[in-house]
Amino acid sequence: MDILLQLIDFILHVDRYLETFVQNHGAWVYALLFLIVFVETGLVIMPFLPGDSLLFIVGAMCGADLMSWPLVVAILLVAAIGGDQTNYMIGRYFGPRVFQWENSRFFNRQAFEQAHAFYEKYGGVTIVLARFMPFIRTFVPFVAGVANMTRHKFTTYNVVGAVLWVVGLTLAGYLFGNLPFVQTHLSKIIWALILVPGLLTLVGAWRARRSGP
Fold first, then answer.
1. Residue 200: how many CA atoms within 13 Å on its side-chain side?
2. Phi, psi for 131 (deg, rounded to 5)
3. Contact by Cβ (8 Å): 147, 112
4. Alpha-carbon distances, residue 43 vs 10, 24, 75, 85 (angstroms)
5. Which of 58, 112, 118, 200 lies 20 to 30 Å from 177 when distance is taken between CA atoms?
């Protein structure tokens, strides 16, 4: 329970933690940011690390001249693209071994072919949109690998999604993060960045299920 409370405190007050880290360790903050984003996107067991809120706060800190925005964008792009690519490769490598293909009672050839067909047809949009959805963005690349989505197609949309996510959220923080209204309601904004995408995903899934056969 203490660990969970500490994690929630870190997510909700990531601005304070990062500012303190910059004051104490300077440029090492770039390595920390790379590590957080890479682990959150690259390891399917770490979906709870801050993503959207972190990028917004980092952008705001760049706007306050505590960090370099171009350098932040470059580092986080490498982390986000590399993380998703790693996650995809893990799924592609371990997926067949987990299921043991046709030799396992847990393997369903029809389900696998449907998943593969879905990712070939809709995977690009899924990968891009998942960037803005906490938790989901950690699992989508792994599932794409398990479903054997074409490597070139995955990489293309991985890059597109990473650019939109990193540049968009850090730029929003850079432009608006230091406004008095935003600073006053920062905790609420962070909660919105965490909860709203998830709620939209649930609503979309519910509507898709109702409209399905």
1. 12
2. -55, -30
3. yes
4. 20, 28, 18, 10
5. 200
CA distances from 121 to 65, 112, 149, 163 (A): 43, 14, 10, 22
Instruction: Give the chain's length.
Output: 213
Is 169:77 a contact under the CB 8 Å cutoff? no
CB 67 within 8 A of CB 58: yes
pTM: 0.77
Q: Which residue has the tokens 């984003």?
A: 37
- Indicate if the pLDDT at residue 153 is higher than 60: yes
In this structure, what token pair is assigned to residue 168?
């968009």
Q: Are 145 and 87 in contact (CB under 8 A)?
A: yes
Helix then strand then coil, % of the chain, to nearest 5? 80, 0, 20
* 3 state SS for 81-114: HHHHHHHHHHHHHHHHHHHCHHHCCCCCHHHHHH
Of 28-42, 49-63, 101-115, 124-138, which gets the smallest average pLDDT? 101-115
Q: Name residue, tokens 């989508």.
A: 140
